[in-house]
């Protein structure tokens, strides 16, 4: 029985992959709007009905990977072990995925992944759908944090900050890859940037970039300790 189930799942995975590959090829060649679902089905040698058995919408032929990730952050927080904060759980996962060069981190130099990302960035409908999935994922994380904290505002703030950091880190990695670096070459810098991002999340912004007093910005200036007494004002010279 288990062997039959395994074979069935492999066949389903193969069909799903064939559909996604056919869609990617056609979208790159002619543009997203110029390709119908029926044409994708023909290219993959399946029926149009089969396409919708696997994908809810035309966009999901490209964004299926993003849709599968929607619940991951909330699930990770929900299932974290005792003694671990949500921040620690999400930080640990990010570094694990960096080491794997996972596409969600922007660190993948896999040619197929780069083709998908470039297509998404050049297609407004795909960008909108990707943003929608990201927002849904953030909302699920916010709901999970609210269930534990009891504060809706703090949960929303935490979720938005976490997703903001993840997004900026992924963009920085993708820019490094598209500039010509391999994932292995980019990895050490990606780790440093992730440490910075998650450290900011953990420690906050309170003491960063405190502006110096004007006199402290004058090279070589040292206060001499004299005080001018002008009534309610006292000026140190």
TrEMBL record:
Molecular functions (GO terms): DNA-binding transcription factor activity; transcription cis-regulatory region binding
Keyword Transcription regulation appears in the UniProt entry: yes
Pfam family name, one: TetR_N
Keywords attached to this entry: DNA-binding, Transcription, Transcription regulation
Domain of life the protein comes from: Bacteria
Start and end residues of each HTH tetR-type domain: 13-73
Listed PROSITE patterns: HTH_TETR_2
Keyword Transcription regulation among UniProt keywords: yes
DNA-binding region(s) from the entry: 36-55
Biological process according to GO: negative regulation of DNA-templated transcription
Protein name: Transcriptional regulator, TetR family
């Amino acid at each position: 029985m288990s062997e039959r189930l395994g074979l069935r799942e492999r066949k389903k995975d193969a069909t799903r992959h064939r559909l996604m590959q056919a869609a990617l090829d056609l979208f790159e060649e002619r543009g997203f709007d110029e390709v119908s679902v029926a044409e994708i089905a023909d290219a993959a040698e399946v029926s149009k009905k089969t396409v919708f058995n696997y994908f809810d919408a035309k966009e999901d032929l490209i964004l299926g990977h993003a849709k599968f990730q929607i619940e991951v952050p909330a699930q990770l927080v929900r299932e974290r072990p005792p003694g671990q904060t949500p921040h620690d759980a999400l930080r640990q996962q990010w570094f694990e995925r960096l080491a794997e060069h996972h596409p969600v981190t922007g660190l993948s130099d896999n040619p197929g992944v780069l083709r998908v990302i470039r297509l998404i960035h050049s297609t407004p409908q795909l960008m909108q759908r990707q943003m929608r999935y990201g927002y849904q994922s953030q909302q699920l994380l916010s709901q999970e944090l609210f269930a534990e904290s009891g504060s809706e505002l703090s949960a929303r703030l935490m979720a938005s900050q976490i997703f903001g950091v993840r997004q900026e880190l992924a963009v920085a990695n993708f820019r490094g890859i598209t500039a010509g670096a391999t994932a292995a070459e980019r990895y050490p810098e990606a780790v440093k940037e992730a440490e910075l991002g998650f450290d900011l999340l953990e420690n906050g912004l309170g003491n960063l970039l405190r502006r110096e007093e004007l006199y402290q910005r004058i090279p070589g200036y040292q206060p001499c300790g004299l005080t001018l007494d002008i009534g309610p004002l006292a000026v140190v010279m």
